């Protein structure tokens, strides 16, 4: 087990830079190309200054030929080197960004972090905060390294020509390239944190308003929702203005330092020329080189002002990557046994935190091959927790879940979910066609298999009546389908996956009584031949299952067939009597 990250390595900026370690050689090459481009620009102005000053003395043309060629060469090399620097650094940054996105997607694919963040905020973390990695590498890492290499070389050349001018240039570059950026970074840290948070809040408010629009309109709350979006937008705009002010401060301070340094160098140089300690040609070279040298540090204040926002984005990014998993499973392992197999649960105990009550407290349950078993209980009985364990969204705190004698928690989650799958309580229907929603379970399968699954789920007749058939667009979250059709579509998708144990978690929770009875009958008919677990709080259709487990407060109260439980005193018979009495009334 790796040791926890401590000290400076915990800083999001350092951790984001560490993500680029596999591309380190490319970034070094990019810095060298950038130094060559910036150095060519500075040298171009210096050589041009020498050429103009020397030409004023009317020397033979041959004395200027080398400078003329050098000027042309530097002009060409500057463009070529800048292109190569952008090509290499952006290629390395994009490759690193792709690696980071894959890591984030892989983390989210394990499903646990999705449940711990608001949807809009998670989108912001996935897009804007992940993209901040590229921003840091291209604009935050490369320019300072280029400035160190090129600035040192420029100071050395100017010092060799005129020591006071070189020292003055060094002081100016330190002020413009170090002091001003540090001030900008210090001033921009808190606004940067607020900007990342404000971006997430705006994204969340927009998503909530868009997806909740029907309910918001029905309850007259749309104005409040829009006001929330406007408030989030106002806050983000205010922070962005503060960020723009910091950028203006950095640019203005750098320009002021540049002007003062050039003027001071010029005044000292003129005095040196008057004292015959410096030639007029060298004066022109030193002054124009000093002017060009500030191009080296020009990007740094803006970079530093953005570090606060980048650091905050990095913290939000690692907030996703560092989320501890709810499921501890090996990446690889032996395959689960093939063929019909019994599901056996023994002494299953689960709770959601230390000191919390047990959501499941010693549950024992068996599903024989080809049998249909129902778990019945009121809300809060632990039924959804049982489904989460079977779907491998949670690990048991103790106890075992075995399929054919093999503990599913000891196998990779993908293998376990392929063997034990079904219809969750609130199945997601994607904003795509019926065909693509079905193929999610078995990519690339033919239409014959799709129609077979639809027929088994009692949905084929409705799809055949649609003008576009399998190409029918279902809308966002399946809004173009009725509640019963959405459940049947989810069941057809589960049947295409062909699990060994089919789990139906509250499949009729959001349906009216008439639809609920019909959907339950269809689901149980479609599940014939499967080892099926029906998790429900509804009594409809339970006379068709083989066994019933009554669950309350995380424990099994009763177990037996429908007839056996009706013949015994207890929760089940009382619930049936109450339901029949309500129906008769």
UniProtKB/TrEMBL annotation:
One Pfam family linked to the record: ABC_tran
Keyword hit for Nucleotide-binding: yes
Segments traversing the membrane: 25-52, 58-76, 145-163, 169-187, 246-274, 280-303
Annotated ABC transmembrane type-1 domain residues: 28-309
Main location: membrane
InterPro entries registered for this protein in UniProt: AAA+_ATPase (IPR003593), ABC1_TM_dom (IPR011527), ABC1_TM_sf (IPR036640), ABC_CydC/D (IPR014223), ABC_transporter-like_ATP-bd (IPR003439), ABC_transporter-like_CS (IPR017871), P-loop_NTPase (IPR027417), Type_1_exporter (IPR039421)
GO CC annotations, alphabetized: plasma membrane
Gene Ontology biological process terms in this record: cell redox homeostasis; glutathione transmembrane transport
SUPFAM superfamilies: ABC transporter transmembrane region (SSF90123), P-loop containing nucleoside triphosphate hydrolases (SSF52540)
Record bears the keyword Membrane: yes
PANTHER family (alphabetical): ATP-BINDING CASSETTE SUB-FAMILY B (PTHR24221), ATP-BINDING CASSETTE SUB-FAMILY B MEMBER 6 (PTHR24221:SF654)
GO terms assigned for molecular function: ABC-type transporter activity; ATP binding; ATP hydrolysis activity; ATPase-coupled lipid transmembrane transporter activity
Species classification: Bacteria, Bacillati, Actinomycetota, Actinomycetes, Streptosporangiales
Keywords: ATP-binding, Membrane, Nucleotide-binding, Transmembrane, Transmembrane helix
Location(s) in or outside the cell: Cell membrane
UniProt name for this protein: ATP-binding cassette subfamily C protein CydC
Topology relative to the membrane: Multi-pass membrane protein
Organism, scientific name: Murinocardiopsis flavida
């Amino acid at each position: 087990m790796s040791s926890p990250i401590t000290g400076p390595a915990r800083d999001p900026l350092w951790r984001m830079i560490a993500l680029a370690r596999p591309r380190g050689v490319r970034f070094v090459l990019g810095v060298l190309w950038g130094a060559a481009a910036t150095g060519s620009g500075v040298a171009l102005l210096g050589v041009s200054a020498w050429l103009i000053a020397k030409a004023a003395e009317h020397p033979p043309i041959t004395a200027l030929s080398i400078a003329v060629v050098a000027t042309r060469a530097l002009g060409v090399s500057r463009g070529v080197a800048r292109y190569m620097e952008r090509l290499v650094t952006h290629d390395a940054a994009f490759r690193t960004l792709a690696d980071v996105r894959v890591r984030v997607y892989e983390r989210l694919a394990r499903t646990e972090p999705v449940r711990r963040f608001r949807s809009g905020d998670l989108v912001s973390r996935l897009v804007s905060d992940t993209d901040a990695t590229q921003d840091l590498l291209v604009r935050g890492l490369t320019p300072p390294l280029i400035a160190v290499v090129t600035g040192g070389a420029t100071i050395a050349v100017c010092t060799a020509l005129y020591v006071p001018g070189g020292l003055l240039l060094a002081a100016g570059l330190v002020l413009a390239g170090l002091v001003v950026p540090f001030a900008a970074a210090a001033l921009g840290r808190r606004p940067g944190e607020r900007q990342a948070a404000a971006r997430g809040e705006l994204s969340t408010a927009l998503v909530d308003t868009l997806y909740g629009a029907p309910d918001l309109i029905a309850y007259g709350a749309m104005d409040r929702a829009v006001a929330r979006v406007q408030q989030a937008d106002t806050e983000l705009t205010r922070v962005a203005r503060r960020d723009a002010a910091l950028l203006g401060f950095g640019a203005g301070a750098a320009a002021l330092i540049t002007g003062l340094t050039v003027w001071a160098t010029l005044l000292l140089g003129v005095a040196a020329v008057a004292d015959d300690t410096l030639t007029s040609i060298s004066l022109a070279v030193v002054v124009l080189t000093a002017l060009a040298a500030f191009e080296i540090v020009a990007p740094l204040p803006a970079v530093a002002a953005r570090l606060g926002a980048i650091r905050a984005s990095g913290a939000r990014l690692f907030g996703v990557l560092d989320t501890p998993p709810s499921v501890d499973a090996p990446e690889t392992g032996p395959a689960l046994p093939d063929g019909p197999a019994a599901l056996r649960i023994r002494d299953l105990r689960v709770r959601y935190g230390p000191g919390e009550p047990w959501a499941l407290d010693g549950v024992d349950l068996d599903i024989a091959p080809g049998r249909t078993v129902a778990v019945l209980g009121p809300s809060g009985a632990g039924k959804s927790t049982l489904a989460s364990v079977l779907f491998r969204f949670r690990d048991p705190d103790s106890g075992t879940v075995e399929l054919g004698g093999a503990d599913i928690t000891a196998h990779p989650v993908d293998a376990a979910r392929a063997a034990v799958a079904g219809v969750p309580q609130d199945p997601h229907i994607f904003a795509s066609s019926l065909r693509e929603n079905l193929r999610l379970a078995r990519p690339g399968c033919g239409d014959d298999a799709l129609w077979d699954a639809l027929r088994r789920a009692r949905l084929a007749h409705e799809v055949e009546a649609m003008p576009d058939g399998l190409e029918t667009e279902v809308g966002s979250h399946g809004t173009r389908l009725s509640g019963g059709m959405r459940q049947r579509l989810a069941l057809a998708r589960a049947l295409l996956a062909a699990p060994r144990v089919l789990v139906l978690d509250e499949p009729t929770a959001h349906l009216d009584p008439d639809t609920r009875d019909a959907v339950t009958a269809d689901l149980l008919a479609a599940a014939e031949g499967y080892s099926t677990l029906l998790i429900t709080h509804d009594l409809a259709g339970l006379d068709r299952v083989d066994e019933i487990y009554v669950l309350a407060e995380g424990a099994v109260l009763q177990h037996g067939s429908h007839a056996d439980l009706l013949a015994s005193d207890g929760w089940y018979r009382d619930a049936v009597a109450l339901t029949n009495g309500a129906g008769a009334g």
